[in-house]
Write a structure and sequence with these properties.
Elements: H1 2-17, E1 26-28, H2 32-39, E2 43-50, E3 53-54, E4 57-59, E5 61-67, H3 73-86, E6 89-95, E7 98-103, E8 109-114, H4 118-121, H5 128-136, H6 138-141, E9 145-151
Parallel strand pairs: 1-4
Antiparallel strand pairs: 2-5, 3-4, 5-9, 6-7, 7-8, 8-9
Length: 154
């Protein structure tokens, strides 16, 4: 037991004593108040995070799945855009049903609005029960809207 503890201590000293390229230097998160503001626009049926790691940085993105109780995705997208605009968000791009928005209030934070396929594209996973419910009714799931919030940091 003592040998194992000593080996672990030596490993810890070795790793902290060198510039390990795999250790993140920075973690970038979205301000929780910005997440709350976006959550306020509708009924969130699922929420998760993805945390891609690149260039010694972990970027934590918040992923929200909304049900606006409309018949299809284009209606959900129009609803979300309008509600976010009322909160001061403005559109910065729109390509193939994916809309990016930013807010003067939440500098360096972007919101990307897309359909339910965005969950897979983002590499996000939902709690299995919730994911089964979302995907169980294909007509209903086609009306869900996914918003991914990310921050570019300071």
């Amino acid at each position: 037991m003592a040998r194992i503890l000593f080996a672990m201590l030596c490993l810890l000293v070795a790793v902290t004593g060198c510039d390990a390229a795999w250790l993140p230097q920075k973690v970038i998160k979205v301000d929780p108040a910005a997440v709350d503001e976006v959550r306020s626009i509708g009924h969130v049926v699922a929420q998760t995070t993805v945390d891609p790691f690149y260039e010694r940085t972990v970027q934590v993105n918040n992923v929200l799945v909304f049900d606006f109780n409309v018949s299809d995705f284009p209606q959900a997208l129009r609803e979300a855009r309008g509600l976010l605009r009322k909160l001061g968000w403005s559109e910065i791009s729109s390509v193939d049903g994916v809309v990016q928005m930013e807010s003067d209030r939440w500098r360096n934070i972007t919101a990307e609005l897309g359909d339910i396929k965005a969950i897979d594209e983002l590499g996000a996973t939902l709690e299995s029960k919730i994911e089964r419910e979302i995907r169980a009714n294909s007509l209903k799931s086609n009306s869900y809207l996914v918003i991914s919030l990310s921050s570019v940091g300071e």
